[in-house]
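If it is no trouble, might I ask you for a protein's amino acid sequence along with its backbone structure tokens?
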Amino acid sequence: MKEIYDKIKEINVTLKRSFIDLEKSLPYQDVAEKSAKILECTLFMIDTKRNFLGYGFSEKFYQSDMNLQNFFTYQKISKELSTEILNQYEMSESEQMTHSILKSVKELSGKFANQYLTLIPIEGNHLRLGTVFLLTDAPLNQEEAILADFLSTFIGNQMSYIMLSELETKRRNETFVSLVQSLSRSELEAFKSIIEKIE
């Protein structure tokens, strides 16, 4: 139990100290790399638009694989496969890659044929935001499943907070623009004078 607690603390610290910008490519790359080492697995995440959010490997052998790096950085899974994945609302059972939902993705099934795949939905604010994929040498045990579920829950809460914050900022900006556009010339001059004094 102490080992689970220690790993949860590690994941917690990693997520809290990571700056996430959802507008950037692979926004969760740092989180994915560190979490893969903590969970001792290969890990990657995608959002509902099929964009990869980040990927990480516990084994150094894969860290220098340019084909994998290019796949996670520049490619997407198919729309049909994405729909099938998004229709899974619970953590999946661990399945050998060659019999899993990703068996048709040759870039992955060829590299990880002997590993087991587990899917964990990323949810936040009652919305499906993406999916975490874990590749392990054996099916997840109960302790590993708890850690994986904690990771996806924390990421989901964080993503929903960031998205809501961005929407609120956009709403305030639109309200401000609308307000300024409704002012008369004399009101605009007075408003400009106030801003200049504040600055």
